[in-house]
Amino acid sequence: MAHFAFVSAPASGHVNPTLPLVEELVRRGHRVSYATGPATMDGPVAAGASPVTLPSQLPPDMAARGEFTAEQLAVTMEYYLDDARASFPVLSEHFSADPPDAVCYDSVTFTGRMLANLLGVREISLVPTFAENESFSAAQVYLPADFDHTNPQLVAAIQDMGKFAQGHTFLEDPNLMFGYVAPTSLVFIPREFQMSGETFDERFHFIGPSLSGRQTTEEWSPRSQAPVLLISLGTVFNDRPEFYRTCIEAFGDSDWQVVMAVGALDQESLGPIPSNVEVHAHVPQVAVLRHTEVFLSHAGMNSTMESLYHGVPFVAVPQIPEQRAIARRAEELRVGRTLTDPTVRGLRDAVQDVRSSRPRAQALSRIVRGAGGASKGADVLEQLLTR
């Protein structure tokens, strides 16, 4: 049996899509070592992986890093570079002593590619959102039209990353964050949802999402026969008390059973809660989606795939450029509706309107579920090691 090293940023949106694949590999008798930060290690361990804890953590001000200005991109590059300087020595020491047969790394975590190059083993990019190739770049949809590529802070960050790459002569390609296309990529969305999906060749395996063992066993039951409206802005960009108050005004004392997840927000700041509205820090999202009529979401890719997996159309209130792109793609496929400035009337109209998209969401659900998921991903990895 093979030994797979997984390397990921310490973000739930990057780790969680990989957990069903880890479970499947372990079920087949393979050994998985999972390297990530302490904040996201519980999931891989529960999936059966051996932990390799990295000194990695997300910046404390992630919620303020939403827009892709030149300054913000420079700060992001500096973060990844600082993380690589701290994490790569841990990776190289651990896996030089316990070599894997292949390295599976999150597509934004270039230390995984560095590790594969250092050890001379196969590399597999794990892509939790839109994939990129030689003809499609996320910059085409994420960056604003007035983006300043000559910004001095950005130029300096690019130069620093180039110097870092030059200091590691084992790298086969010095492009760490931009312009590199891995020889094999597992993409956790179906090709039908991918922008410019027809341009991606056999290097890309669009396996779609899967549910983890925890997600399949979690239970939730509605309190009444009323249709369920699930509301969540995800795990990072959710400190939006004014948004939740608007939702309560829009749907309180209505025919909806409203289930709202607000993260660490002080629930007292929301004021009186009507009887048809339940407010939680977190909910078992997949379990709730099994009973949901409409999802009012930030349009993160994980939430989007979970919604479509269950045939649930959604209203998107995106918080960052990537989420706006995902929401736009959902609108193109006629399974979602986007609100950039949610008002009471706008929320009511959008939720009512998107209910008619349920047949299309259910049709796309069959495509999402038929993409192959973790089983197909494990097949790809096993076949790579037999070549």
UniProtKB/TrEMBL annotation:
What is an example of a Pfam family matching this protein?
A: UDPGT
| Superkingdom of the source species | Bacteria
| Entry keywords, A to Z | Transferase
Gene Ontology terms, MF aspect: transferase activity
The transmembrane segments are: none
InterPro entries named among the record's database cross-references: Glycosyltransferase_28, UDP_glucos_trans, UDPGT_MGT-like
Q: Which SUPFAM superfamilies match?
A: UDP-Glycosyltransferase/glycogen phosphorylase
- NCBIfam families given in the database record: MGT (TIGR01426)
Assigned protein family? Belongs to the UDP-glycosyltransferase family.
In terms of PANTHER family, this protein maps to:
STEROL 3-BETA-GLUCOSYLTRANSFERASE (PTHR48050), STEROL 3-BETA-GLUCOSYLTRANSFERASE UGT80A2 (PTHR48050:SF13)
List the protein's name: Glycosyl transferase
Origin organism is: Actinacidiphila acididurans
